[in-house]
Amino acid sequence: MEKWLKSLKTKTPQEGFELAITLAQKGVQYTQPSEKIRKKLRPKYSQNAKSLISASQVIAINFQTIAAANNYWERQR
């Protein structure tokens, strides 16, 4: 496996949110390593409100973790 996650530390909340999205995407890739299957499934879940809400929840949880790791961006400096 590729070593891609060096740290949860980010400079800004925006970077933190983008990292949260990346974590969610990587989670899907690790869970379903076949790109062919992921592409086949995407049209189904991209049109499903429950699936989209679930994806948003995963991103939100990741963002909470990243915010905590960044001490909520050093308490707004």
Detailed description of the structure:
The structure is a single chain. This protein has 77 residues and is mainly α. It is 74% helix and 0% strand. It has four helices and no strands. It has helices at residues 13-31, 35-45, 49-69, 71-76. Helix 1 packs across helix 3. It is flat, with a radius of gyration of 14 Å. The mean pLDDT is 93.
SSE topology string: HHHH
Q: Compute the CA-based radius of gyration.
A: 14 Å
The best one-word shape is flat
Which stretches of 5+ consecutive residues score pLDDT under 50?
none
**Euclidean distance between termini CA atoms:** 36 Å
Derived from helix and strand composition plus strand pairing, the structural class reads mainly alpha
Main β-sheet: number of strands, strand sense, barrel status? none
Number of helices: 4
In brief:
By secondary structure, the protein is an all-alpha fold. The protein contains four helices and no strands.
Offer a few descriptive terms.
77 residues; mainly alpha; 74% helix; 0% strand; flat
Give the secondary structure arrangement, pairings included.
Blueprint: H1 13-31, H2 35-45, H3 49-69, H4 71-76
Helix pairs in contact: 1-3
